[in-house]
Amino acid sequence: xxxxxxxxxxxxxxxxxxxxxxxxxxxxxxxxxxxxxxxxxxxxxxxxxxxxxxxxxxxxxxxxxxxxxxxxxxxxxxxxxxxxxxxxxxxxxxxxxxxxxxxxxxxxxxxxxxxxxxxxxxxxxxxxxxxxxxxxxxxxxxxxxxxxxxxxxxxxx
Length: 157
What we know:
The chain has a domain at 4-87: 434 Repressor (Amino-terminal Domain). Helix content is 61%, strand content 3%. It is built from 9 helices and 2 strands, in the order ββααααααααα. A two-stranded antiparallel sheet has the order 1-2. α2 (20-30) packs across α4 (46-54), α2 (20-30) runs parallel beside α5 (63-76) and α5 packs across α6 (80-87).
């Protein structure tokens, strides 16, 4: 014990790192891979790799960060699913919880109000009446600006 393997103390490889970034950094160093080489293989910018290894993505295990972890783990030859599982806290709920009763009640009230509004608008337009439209209601009056200008010029002469 106490011997260094490729720049990493031997004890570091036996203990479980506290964050996925520390775990990936340890795996990278054990394999003798530099950040520049990892950057070229994964096409992830060096700054992002440094942030990942520093543990800045651990607090927000969103899809973006999980994709980084998965890509880096694959490039290092580590199981990507294992690396991602190290990132996710055990307390995360696996299923989506049902909405609270107040939310259900509010949603039902909003839906009822929308239905009443739609019915009022439909009845206000005369919805449901099968009467034929009269000829006067079909007549469309349009203003002809050119004709009005011509009439105005003729009157001025």
